[in-house]
Inverse folding.
């Protein structure tokens, strides 16, 4: 019997590490650090709004010299931060559906992004609200984590041509 992937491994399996990765609402940055450690050419922008966390986060990420020069830490609000012009691989995980919906609304009109979301809140509500916001589920995986069941989605704008 195959062992189910952890939440982090599931997220890693769904991102596109060839694009710059944005670990939004990152807390201690475990997702972004896993990206840096798995793909030696990956670049990660960590975004966390709580000042108390941000300083420790920068030191935590910099613990490994192999990560040098491949990351930025931004102490900003994911709903206000200036987004890159070029396509990116956005991860917004471990937060509530309303916050994820507000972030997705910021991506309107962009093309070429990879968008991976995760919440422990109701998957049905997440899918209904994101659909009302113009997004559809591209892939969905249910995972168990330290804090219970979570769902991980790859989302894309409704109407985007696949491929
Ligand atoms: C439960 S942690 C999730 C950490 C990580 N994303 C994960 O899935 O393991 C949620 C973090 O999001 C941060 N956060 C909440 N709203 C935010 C916002 N609008 N912009 C940036 N960070 C935010 C909180 O301060 C907290 O550190």
């Amino acid at each position: 019997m195959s062992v189910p992937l952890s939440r982090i491994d599931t997220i890693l399996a769904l991102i596109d590490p060839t694009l710059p990765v944005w670990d939004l609402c990152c807390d201690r940055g475990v997702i972004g650090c896993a990206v840096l450690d798995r793909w030696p050419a990956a670049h990660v922008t960590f975004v966390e709004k709580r000042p108390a966390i941000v300083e420790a986060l920068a030191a935590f990420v910099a613990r490994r010299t192999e990560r040098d020069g491949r990351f930025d830490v931004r102490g900003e609000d994911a709903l206000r931060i200036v987004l890159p012009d070029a396509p990116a691989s956005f991860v917004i995980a471990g937060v509530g559906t309303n916050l994820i919906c507000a972030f997705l609304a910021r991506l309107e009109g962009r093309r070429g992004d990879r968008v991976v979301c995760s919440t422990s809140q109701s998957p049905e509500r997440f899918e209904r609200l994101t659909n009302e916001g113009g997004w559809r589920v591209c892939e969905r995986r249910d995972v168990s984590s330290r804090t219970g069941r979570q769902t991980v989605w790859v989302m894309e704008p409704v109407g985007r041509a696949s491929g």
The two ends are 32 Å apart (CA to CA).
